[in-house]
Amino acid sequence: MIPVMTAEDIHDATETFARYGVPADRIFSEIMRARYLDYVLFQNPENQQYGVSIEDLYENMKKTSDTLGLYEGDADTYVRAYTLALRVDPMAFAPDMEKVEDHVGALVEEATSRAKKGGTTVLFTGVENYLPFVSRIFDTLSDKRLAFAVKDRVWKKRLQLVFPRCRLMMEEDLPEDTVSYDYIFQFGGSSHFLSKRLKETGAMDVVLPYETLLSPEMEGDRNSWIREGKLVSYEDMVLGNGEFAFLRFGSEPVKTISFGTASFQNGQYESARALELPWDSFRDAEEWNIDVYIYNGSPALQTMLGGHILDMDYSIDAGFASVGETELEGGTIPILSAANIRDYGIFSDTEPALTERGQKGILLQGGDLAIAVSGGEIHMIPVPEGEKFLAGQGVYGFRSRGKYTPWYLKLYLDGPVGRLFLDTMKAGRNYAFTPSRLLRIPMPPAGDEIIRKADRLCRDTVRQLAEAQENWRLAKRNSVGLMMGHREV
């Protein structure tokens, strides 16, 4: 199996390729050529038994020059380039690849593990969403009849050369596919027809943006899944900064369905179950809002919502909006990292960053509520008036729509009721936090007087907490002189 390549491995391989006459912009082409030749040449039983001579390999290389260009070194050097190309991870050198979150890799590992335990035919769709991890799929499932479906014809040609033993398809052609699969991993897009491609003992995992799952365009898929009755679990998960639904299907109609939150710890998928229902109850409810099921997994929240103390139709979204990316004006601006957000203020060592005009980022300004997960806990604080910060990784901002203040929202979310809702986002030791999910949390409506009182209570208490933190810092500093600088005889 080809090992996962580190940045140092990639750098070393790039330098070695250069010594063999392969510049950096030609490496992927040589990898495609080497893998294609390896597949074609060793289909010949004689070559399998006796191997391929340097001269034959060099001559066959020339036959691919129309599509992959001509290698300009001699035969002996080409053998070295060919051997190296077979040893490295192809996708580490592939062009035009966007950065993919590690969580996506962990999800692909989970899907690959499930496929490994199944039968012989496997289909992975939406491959552009996880291109850096395709080599791992191929290596792990080398004993399977593996198929990949892509949207881009350029990537179809590239992957067909890199993985010639795999079947490559365009996603638009999937409805006409007649192969029956033991396992299907569907990332994005409509997929109700794919369940008909499953064998009787097959299984399928579907990953969709949460908004897409609930959209009118997906009604046909949802109705099909209800009719089939094979949906085993429905989980909410975070990939990058987006909220996704993770649907797992079995091979037979089920009696129960579970709901929960998925997270990724140490590169592995974890699931936190919130509620399990009889399938008939889910079918009759005709409800796909994941919050309905997760909130009902908490007796306290079930009581409040059932008793109409809180209403799911009146949520934080009624008073606040998520601060989205915007084009920056350029210049130096402090970056607010997740570790610098405290419940009593913003830690002072925020480092400035030089930004370019037109660069995109989340710009937090005075009056926004900054929220981040740090150390396995959610922390939040309003940005002081007159200050601006560029949100760092995992930092989110919520801006008042006019009526409610950030101090009101902080007091609510930091209070026992708000924490009950926030804790429904926990999976394992971490929070699967997204702005969209927070904005759906029910919020108690309030008039101007209640808002003013809550705002003042939160401001005053946070100020006292900040003063106490500063006094404690000074006490620790002064302890050195008090305890270490003097001795009693």
Note down, in words, how this protein is organized.
With 489 residues, the chain is an alpha/beta fold. Helices cover 39% and strands 25% of the residues. It is built from 18 helices and 23 strands. The chain is globular and about 85 Å long. The mean pLDDT is 90.
List keywords for this structure.
globular; 4-stranded antiparallel beta sheet; 489 residues; alpha/beta; 39% helix; single chain; 23 strands
Query: What's the rounded overall pLDDT mean?
Result: 90
Strand tally: 23
Structural class: alpha/beta
As a whole number of angstroms, the C-alpha radius of gyration is 28 Å
Give the helix level as a range of percent.
25-40%
Q: Quote the distance from N terminus to C terminus.
A: 70 Å
Topology (elements, then pairings):
Layout: H1 7-19, H2 27-41, H3 45-50, H4 54-63, H5 65-68, H6 75-87, H7 102-117, E1 121-124, H8 134-140, E2 145-150, H9 153-162, E3 167-170, E4 181-187, E5 198-209, H10 210-214, H11 219-228, E6 231-239, E7 242-249, E8 256-265, E9 268-278, H12 279-285, H13 290-296, H14 299-306, E10 320-322, E11 326-327, E12 331-336, E13 341-342, E14 345-346, E15 352-355, E16 360-361, E17 363-365, E18 369-374, E19 377-382, E20 388-391, E21 395-400, H15 406-414, H16 416-423, E22 426-427, E23 430-431, H17 435-439, H18 448-484
Parallel strand pairs: 1-2, 1-4, 2-3, 4-5, 6-8, 12-20
Antiparallel strand pairs: 5-7, 6-7, 8-9, 10-21, 11-16, 12-15, 13-14, 17-20, 18-19, 18-21, 22-23
Helix pairs in contact: 2-6, 2-9, 4-6, 15-16, 15-18
